[in-house]
Amino acid sequence: MTLMNAVVFPAFGPPDVFRAVRVDRPEPGPGEALVRIHAAGICYHDVLSRAGRIPRDRPGQILGHEISGVVEAVGVDVPAGRVGERVVIYQRLYCGRCANCLAGRQDLCRNSRVLGEQGGGGYAEYCCVPERNLITVPDVVDLDSAALAVCPVGTSIRALVGVAEGKAGDTVLVTGAGGGLGLHQIQLARALHMRVIAVTSSPEKVEAIRAAGAHEVVVSTDGAFSAEVWRLTGKEGVNVVLENVVSTTLGESLRSCAARAAVVILGNVEARPVSLDPGLVIGRRLRICGSGNATYGDVRLALHLMATGAVKPFIHAALPFRDVGEGHRLMESRKTIGRVLLKGW
Ligand SMILES: [Zn+2]
Ligand SMILES: [Zn+2]
Asked: How far is the CA of 227 from the centre of ligand 1 (A)?
């Protein structure tokens, strides 16, 4: 058996719980491909997993679902020509047979898991996945950037285009605008000819938020931003809210909405229940929707928007895999501007 480097967390705990280990390198079986990992993004979901805050998670596994790399080897019935191909990995291992899969919504497969949830993820030198999970990266997109195609860029496309059905001319409110999701949502909304009002609690992130293309930036240290949004929209309100924060912002987001607005919940930063005012939801005919993993189509659109330069990935830092603990600490500090990538050993 060939060995490879990986980082695992033997128990739930703080960022320094990670351990660099040598484990068996997986071998591609029929229909599978082995990918040499170029970069893996650190998602806030990974932070919650490591801390033991995701129900049913178990410690010990190799986390990570934001993976770019190069095909190293393929199983017997996979075209040998794919070896050497630059790819991102579609993050969900799905059955391909259930009603949702057959409808092209592999992101909703009931018989599935996301890479890294029970191991086999991106915090390693290699990972092995079904060939159908490989998505080709256009030549003009570098593999650092490509690691962000599934999440955060694809996730943002799912929320704004797939779930909210945002369209040109809409006004979009982005909360937690300086975070990994927010900065990419701003660029995406701009690329789709929407007006963007960004809300942040961090004055030091305003410059990056403007650089991402926000038309208006509201710095709200006390959490009260709806009056300013109301003013900025001439008392019309916003058509779409991309809620990346939720626990401290949802009430004010709802108060910022135009009639029939879509409020998309993506973030679960504090992982706790929130209250809401039913009168407001009824009065304004609001649609409150959850959004999650990107579809294949979303990932392809993400790569296309990167290839055209419409979305330029924000990468805060690229750390060696062994420094994954430092990467998680950075994510928890909420001081990062864009994604933290793991790259190289
Ligand atoms: Zn992610
Ligand atoms: Zn399925």
From this structure: 32
Whether residues 267 and 181 share a domain: the answer is yes
Residue 54 has pLDDT above 90, yes or no: no
3-state SS assignment for residue 74: strand
Note whether 285 and 322 are same-domain residues. Answer: no
Neighbours of ion ligand 1 (CB under 5 A): 43, 151
With respect to residue 225, please indicate whether it lies within any of the assigned structural domains: yes
* Residue 304 CA from chain centroid, whole number: 17
Q: Compute the distance from residue 323 Cα to the ligand 1 centre, in Å.
A: 18
Q: Which H or E run contains 230? A: helix 226-232
Query: What's the whole-number mean pLDDT along residues 22-46?
Result: 96
What residue numbers bound the domain in which 252 lies? 152-290
The two structure tokens encoding residue 309:
């330069």
Neighbours of ion ligand 2 (CB under 5 A): 94-95, 98, 101, 109
User: For position 335, what pLDDT does the model report?
Assistant: 85
> Alpha-carbon distance 87 to 146, whole Å?
8
Ligand nearest to the CA of 107: 2
Q: How many domains is the chain partitioned into structurally?
A: 2
Q: How high does pLDDT run on average in the chain?
A: 95
211 contacts: CB under 8 Å, gap ≥ 6 = none
User: Are 25 and 44 contained in the same domain?
Assistant: yes
Domain CATH for 181: 3.90.180.10
Query: Taking a C-beta distance cutoff of 8 angstroms, is the pair 19, 72 a contact?
Result: no
Assess whether 317 and 286 both reside in one domain: no
Residue 285 has, within 13 A of its CA and on its CB side, a CA count of 4
On whether both 198 and 122 belong to a single domain, the answer is no
Residue 98 near residue 63 (C-beta atoms within 8 A): no
Cβ atoms within 10 Å, residue 16: 11
